[in-house]
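Field guide to reading this record: the first block holds the primary sequence, the second block holds the structure written as discrete tokens, and the final block holds curator observations. Each block starts with its own label. This record concerns Serine hydrolase, catalogued under organism Streptomyces niveus.

BLOCK 1 — SEQUENCE
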Amino acid sequence: MTAAIAAAVIALVGATWGLTGDGGSDTLSPGARSLPWPEDGQASVWVEGVGSLGTKGEQKPVPIASVTKVMTAYVILKDHPLRTTDPGPVITVDRKAAEESSSADESTVRVDEGQRLTERRLLELTLIPSGNNIARLLARWDAGSQEAFVAKMNRAAAKLGMRHTTYTGASGYESTSRSTAVDQVRLARAVMRDAVLREIVAMPGTEDPVTGATIPNTNTLLGQSGVIGLKTGSSTPAGGALMWAATAQTHSSKRLILGVVLHQRADTTPQEGLRAAFDSSGKLIEGVRKSLGTAVRARAGEGPRHQPFA
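BLOCK 2 — STRUCTURE
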């Protein structure tokens, strides 16, 4: 397909979806209304070359739990950028991070005081098994204190246009770190431009820094329906949250799809909320991929010429 034809196909798909802005409750494009949007909480989806498909649910700030760590990693890599082959500087584990390893109340990763780990390894331990103590260790290493780092997080959010987001910690443990699905999709778009972050969030697991065993990625959707990342979050006040990245085959190329679901089964248990987030996200991803592929094929003259988003 020539560049001119490809551009025309993208324009037609965009017109069919009927792009929307960042509105409030259920601001879905006409073409996206038939997608399997979650009944609970809120959601937002963006497609490369098409734009926003709109939002489902009232876009009011809600707790986002460990999805917070995406901004933590984003700020760390802005301050200390890495190449994909570069492990980065070596960081010494402090007493606080080691002591927090044994917390029974939150998601942590076992590390020992004085242990020396690279920036890349600590980013993996923050994003893959979702180590709260590791996120806070990176914050202290970068800014001297978690409080100073949080100020950086909020400045970065403002710069990205995340108008309804407030971070109060580097890990997401605090229920006062709040955002909307629309704002988190803005962050996802920025994050997926960084090759190191793209690589890390696609990893099925990482090595335990003490035992050497493999720690699996908390994102169990990886490898299904084109999913290539991003980050889970769950707590009682937040319910289940998931920022996801997937690809869809459109004619001769793959297109990136980004989405966020928040506040799934809030005020139940973290486990129940996360199951709901996986379920709602999986259905939404599959619906977008199928519909997008059908639209492009139809408009490229490859199949039925019906209007899949009418």
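BLOCK 3 — OBSERVATIONS
The longest helix spans residues 270-299.
The longest strand covers residues 239-250.
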